[in-house]
Amino acid sequence: MDKRPRIEQRQERHYVGTRQVMAMRDFDREIPAMLAIVSEWLDAHHVRPAGRPFLRFHVIDMPERMDVELGMPTEQAQDAAGQVESHLLPAGRYAAMEYTGVENGVEANTQLLDWIAAQGEQPNAHASEKGEVFQARYETFLTDTEAEPDQRRWSFEVAIQVRG
């Protein structure tokens, strides 16, 4: 995967996920718990993931309020409602790039947003009283976190839908 920022067209993707509002400092505790909830749902419903887990950021008001969903891609829409729900990542143009190390996430997102602006593009987002609301902004775990315990070695792809 290319580590340089790029814009690409993506197709819609079905997924199941669980959503929570939390402070960024709570990620280390809450994200594994959210992954366990989604994984248990997939196992109980005999659904195989169709890709790597991701964090979808619906609303961001750094660092205290993050409306985040842990999602797992599926081949098709699922009948999920409640703690785990079925959703769709929308088709469209996305700016994306890869980075390594959990500690580099904020910097990588800032770099991608700066790159988007330098290209004359805009994220598909708007301001609200709760923070910046994104149509589609997500980070995919490229590393199997169970096989690699060192968060400094984890690789991610951040993708932000852009207008147009």
CATH topology annotation: Multidrug-efflux Transporter 1 Regulator Bmrr, Chain A
Instruction: Classify the helix fraction into a percent range.
Output: 10-25%
Per the principal axes of the C-alpha atoms, what is the gross shape? globular
The overall average pLDDT, rounded, is 95
Which CATH class is shown? Alpha Beta
Distance between the termini: 24 Å
**Unreliably modeled segments:** none
CATH superfamily: Regulatory factor, effector binding domain
The main β sheet shows up as:
10 strands, antiparallel
- Which architecture does the CATH hierarchy give at level 2? Alpha-Beta Barrel
Strand content: 35-45%
Structural class: alpha+beta
| Tally of helical segments | 2
Overall tally of structural domains:
1
Order of helices and strands: EEHEEEEHEEEE
Number of strands: 10
Radius of gyration: 15 Å
Compact summary:
With 164 residues, the chain is of the alpha+beta class. It has 2 helices and 10 strands; from the N terminus they run E-E-H-E-E-E-E-H-E-E-E-E. The model has no long low-confidence stretch (mean pLDDT 95).
Q: How would you summarize the topology of this molecule?
A:
Elements: E1 6-10, E2 13-22, H1 27-44, E3 54-61, E4 65-73, E5 85-89, E6 92-100, H2 105-118, E7 125-128, E8 131-134, E9 137-141, E10 155-161
Antiparallel strand pairs: 1-6, 2-4, 2-5, 3-4, 3-8, 3-9, 6-10, 7-8, 9-10
Kindly describe this structure.
This protein is of the alpha+beta class and 164 residues long. The chain has a single domain (6-161), classed as Regulatory factor, effector binding domain (Multidrug-efflux Transporter 1 Regulator Bmrr, Chain A, Alpha-Beta Barrel). 20% of the residues lie in helices and 40% in strands. The protein contains two helices and ten strands; from the N terminus they run ββαββββαββββ. It has helices spanning 27-44, 105-118; strands at 6-10, 13-22, 54-61, 65-73, 85-89, 92-100, 125-128, 131-134, 137-141, 155-161. Strands 1, 2, 3, 4, 5, 6, 7, 8, 9 and 10 form a ten-stranded antiparallel sheet that branches. Strand 3 and strand 4 form a beta hairpin. The longest helix is centred in the first third of the chain and has 18 residues, at 27-44. The chain is globular, with a radius of gyration of 15 Å. The chain starts with 5 loop residues before the first strand and ends with a strand. The mean pLDDT is 95.
